[in-house]
Amino acid sequence: MTYNDMIDIKALSEHFVENTSKDKEGNKIMWLKIKCFRFEKGHPGLVKFRYTHDGPYSEFDVFQTLDKVAPRATRRTKRSLDGQAIEENDREGRKEMIDKLKEYVIPKAYSSPIPISEAKKKDLLNLCTKGIIPHFILGMKLYLPVKIL
What we know:
The chain is mainly alpha-helical. It folds into 2 domains: 3-103, no CATH class; 114-149, no CATH class. 40% of the residues lie in helices and 9% in strands. The chain contains 4 helices and 3 strands, in the order αβββααα. It has a 3-stranded antiparallel β-sheet with strand order 1-2-3, with no helix packed on it. Strand 1 and strand 2 (46-50) form a beta hairpin.
C-alpha cells in the first residue's frame, strides 16, 4: 500500500453524508457507547448500530437530512398521517443520491509521499536490521522522504 492508495474520505462525507447525529427515532447517537455496527448491501446509506452486544439494532440514514428526522414525540404521528408519501420521497431521493455517489470520483488523500523525520527513518531502519520488521519492507523504508527541519 502506498500514498497513491489513500483516499480522502472526509471529502466524500462532506458531499454525501447528511446525518450522523440522530437515529430514526430522533434520539441523539452516542458514538462512544456503540458496540456493534451492521451494514447491509441491500440498504445503502442505512447504518444499524447498538449499544450492547445483543439486542435490537437502532438505525440512522446517512443520506437523510436532519430536518426529516422528526423529534421522538412527533415522529409516529407524521408517519401515520402521510406515511406513503414520505416513503416514496425517501426512495426517490435515495436513488438519486446513490446515482450521484456511483459517479463521484473520490479524491486522493496525498499527492506525494509523506516525509518522516530523520530520527524516525533511522529507527525504522534499525528495526529492519534487527529483524523486527521483515526485510522485504526494508526496500520501501530506504526510499522514504525525510522531512528537513
